[in-house]
Amino acid sequence: VQLKSMENKINRQVTFSKRRSGLLKKAHEISVLCDAEVALIVFSTKGKLFEYSTDSSMDSILERYERNSTVEEEPAASHFQSQANWSLEHTKLKAKIEVLQKTQRHFMGQDLESLSLKELQQLEQQLDTSLKQIRSRKNQLLYGSISGLQKKERALQEQNNELVKKIKEKEDEIAQQQQQTQAQDLPTFVLAQALPCLTIGGTYQTGSGSGSGSGSGSRSGSGGRGEVEGVRVLTHQSNTIMPPWML
């Protein structure tokens, strides 16, 4: 049977999928049965990468291939060696880019159909580790932000206490000034009040004895009693005129 490219796109895609799976299976079998290091790289017509490597990574196998090919290669012209090296370097870089893109798609949850159970478990562990590191960094930033806010709060509280202290001192100073002003105005207010009039005097009345029939003893006696009564009357009248503070 002559091998040639299939013209029908659907048949070509189905055949590619079947042969690719068989090729990957054969690579895995030879690596397990013969304990060989196998690296398989397949690009589809659309440029999609399919690869397989043993427990060692693809990079280490490619580096080993480069070392062995360099040792086994016969000396040739420097131009051809440079071209070969650049071509190999280009292949390596292209393979790395494809691997990184594939890993990125896997981290985003895409193209997971080609992964085995073990590879999915490894991907899950990597995602868990990444999430732990992200959460740790986030918590660190949150704690730093909270600490900064607490410092600002303490500074504002100290400023508030200083302002309250100054306001209280100002109020005490104003109250003291008002008290001094009231103390200075009080004597003037007392002196400005009108003093009550002082009138000293009164009517003196002697006792009213019998004018014709009384003797000297009775006159003197009645006269003495009249003087006492007159003094009492004068005192009573004076009390009604004199202010209380002079009594």
TrEMBL record:
UniProt cross-references to SMART domains, sorted A to Z: MADS
Coiled coil: 117-184
InterPro entries assigned: MADS-box/MEF2_TF, MEF2-like_N, TF_Kbox, TF_MADSbox, TF_MADSbox_sf
UniProt biased composition (Gly residues): 208-225
Keywords: Coiled coil, DNA-binding, Nucleus, Transcription, Transcription regulation
Region (Disordered): 205-233
Gene3D superfamilies: Transcription factor, MADS-box
Pfam annotation, one family: SRF-TF
Entry annotated with the keyword Transcription: yes
BP GO annotations: positive regulation of transcription by RNA polymerase II
UniProt GO cellular component terms: nucleus
Residue intervals of the MADS-box domain: 1-56
Main location group: nucleus
Signal peptide segment: none
Entry superkingdom: Eukaryota
Domain called K-box: residue spans: 83-173
GO molecular function annotations of the record: DNA-binding transcription factor activity; protein dimerization activity; RNA polymerase II transcription regulatory region sequence-specific DNA binding
Subcellular location: Nucleus
Name this protein carries in UniProt: FRUITFULL-like protein
Organism of origin: Dactylicapnos scandens
Organism lineage: Eukaryota, Viridiplantae, Streptophyta, Embryophyta, Tracheophyta
